[in-house]
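Quick one: structure for this chain?
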Amino acid sequence: MRVLSKFTIDCDADAAWRALHSPRVLAEVYGPFLDMQPLEAIPTQWEHGQNAAVGLSVAGLIPVGRQLISITDAEREVGGVRVRIIRDSGMPLTGPLAVLDVWDHQMAVSPLPDGRTLWRERLVIGGAAAPALWPGLWALWQWRAARIRQIAPSWAHDPDAVTAESGEADAAATA
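Got it. Here's what it folds into:
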């Protein structure tokens, strides 16, 4: 069974790609509905081939299970447009989703001519319980899409560019 999403976000594709690799952004996407806490040291940025276990709880109060996150990156060119894909092929370890036999979550970002980003997601789940769990996951993915659209403009912040601009402004002010 699949849950599919496709929408536009208000930031450039590079900023979206950086955000996809941020555990902090991942936690923010689910908040405040779901709270994600690392069960072990996790990186500040996901890298190709990394794995980490996290605990999930409703509003930080009711535990709903643990999830293994397993990241791989890919890139394709489609119609002359660069498409970057991050895949989480980890699995629910405990909780209601642990009854699933298949968990394959892919997110893709590609630039749009107006500077925004086309965001696509595909979650594939499988197992005897998948039909019963699909409606809840579909609803959660609608929440995710709304949260992503809401917070994506904040991803456009490029600390290196801001530092360089501030340095130039400071140099001009003292000259």
